[in-house]
Write a structure and sequence with these properties.
The structure is a single chain. An 11-stranded mixed beta sheet has the order 3-1-2-5-4-8-9-10-11-12-13, with helices on both faces. Strands 6-7 form a two-stranded antiparallel sheet. Helix content is 28%, strand content 19%. The chain is of the alpha/beta class. It starts with 27 loop residues before the first strand and ends with a strand. It is globular, with a radius of gyration of 19 Å. It has a single domain, classed as Rossmann fold, CATH 3.40.50.1820. It is an enzyme of class 3 (hydrolase). Keywords: Hydrolase, Lipid degradation, Lipid metabolism. One of its GO terms (biological process) is lipid catabolic process. Pfam families: PAF-AH_p_II. One of its GO terms (molecular function) is 1-alkyl-2-acetylglycerophosphocholine esterase activity.
Length: 390
């Protein structure tokens, strides 16, 4: 199927106000939620993975619970009262993946991507890019961070059925934003490392109880992961989190940073980033200071790449790009001129080409290598191939 022809909005199985695209790769995609531990030191993530086709598979809600609409209204809009409107507009939208679908076995194991969300987001708001990557043969673990940068999140205490919610927190008055955010980015990067440890434990045969009432057995992953091939990825606050995770954990072979918000990273750490990073920027978000920081990394590692996708804005790298224009403009005040399916295709193809190179994958993702040309390139979507370097 042509990845660029958009589905008509509000049609098909999605219903509601959002039509997220199914993955374009050769694998069907399954999805489950995983929560480990009864304290905020545990982990919470949504897992996207290649699965076996299953007739009549249920599709998960895009916004998993109404509490997230409240958190989103509060964090993104600063207007709690919008939560009801958001609930009506997006509360019934579903993700085109198979909920708890059976894992498709792979004797050589799947490479793993740990994904970190942006400020005021949560684990499901990047379902389109996570689904796309899983459809090409990755297991993707989309974290929900507990540093109070998520719109809201929760953990289940050891008391049966009791949940403790962790609301979004703005920078406290009188505190310097850098110190507040720097503390958060370090916690987020530690959570990325803990997520990797979780999968290393599973691969080593450790039994990991998922405390959510899911019937999906995590031990199925034991012989189906290749943990010599692990990358870390994220958007905005999650993009800089991915860069910092490379400093903290040598097992991460590379990072893909979508429109990284470089502000929270201390200057001391730039010389310490040992691995290549692919920065995929949108046209409108980055500042000259931020680009200068990215270039510092590229001067240290010749494999680091910086590309800009023309005609895109910051939200275009989230699922919000697939909301109807009027609703999107109402929430964010603007939208990119590049058709969202095209933007997603360029972003995922550049990421796949980069991941093939640095995880040493035996795939054909090098067909998109031209998207990774030199530092600071702009990717224009309108050449005969759908992209070119200016």
């Amino acid at each position: 199927s042509d990845p660029v022809s958009p589905p008509r909005l509000g049609c098909g199985s999605m219903g509601g106000m959002l039509a997220l695209p199914p993955g374009q790769g050769p694998h069907q995609v399954g999805c489950t939620d995983v929560m480990v531990g009864h304290t905020r030191q545990g982990l919470f993530l949504r897992l996207f993975y290649p699965c076996l086709p299953r007739a009549g598979a249920a599709e998960p809600l895009w916004v998993p619970r109404p509490e997230y609409c409240g958190g989103l209204a509060d964090a993104t809009l600063g207007r709690r009262w919008c939560s009801v409107l958001l609930g009506v507009a997006i509360g019934s939208c579903r993700v085109p993946v198979s909920w708890n679908g059976p894992l498709k076995p792979r004797s050589t194991g799947y490479p793993l991507i740990i994904f970190s969300h942006g400020l005021g987001a949560f684990r499901t708001l990047y379902s389109s890019i996570c689904t796309e990557l899983a459809s090409w043969g990755f297991v993707v673990a989309a974290l929900e961070h507990r540093d109070r940068s998520a719109a809201t999140t929760y953990f289940c205490t050891a008391e049966a059925g009791r949940e403790e919610w962790i609301p979004f927190q703005r920078v406290p008055q009188g505190q310097k934003e850098f110190y507040f955010r720097n503390k958060q980015v370090h916690q987020r990067a530690r959570e990325c490392v803990r997520a990797l440890r979780l999968f290393q434990g599973i691969a080593g045969g450790r039994s990991v109880p998922n405390i959510l009432p899911q019937d999906w057995d995590l031990s199925l992953l034991k012989d189906n992961l290749d943990l010599t091939k692990v990358a870390v990825m994220g958007h905005s606050f999650g993009g800089v989190t991915a860069v910092l995770a490379l400093v903290k954990e040598p097992s991460f072979r590379c990072a893909v940073a979508l429109d990284a918000w470089m502000f929270p990273l201390e200057n001391l750490l730039y010389p310490e980033v040992p691995r290549p990073v692919l920065f995929i920027n949108t046209e409108k978000f980055q500042t000259p200071e931020s680009i200068a920081k990215m270039k510092r990394l590229s001067s240290r590692n010749s494999q680091t790449r910086i590309v800009t996708v023309l005609g895109t804005v910051h939200e275009d790298q989230t699922d919000f790009a697939f909301l109807p224009g009027k609703l999107l403009s109402l929430i964010f005040g603007r939208r990119g001129s590049l058709e969202p399916h095209k933007a997603l295709a360029i972003t995922s193809q550049a990421a796949l080409a980069f991941l093939q190179r640095h995880l040493k994958l035996e795939e054909e993702f090098d067909q998109w290598d031209e998207l990774l040309a030199g530092v600071g390139d702009s990717v224009a979507p309108d050449s005969p191939l759908g992209r070119s370097h200016l």
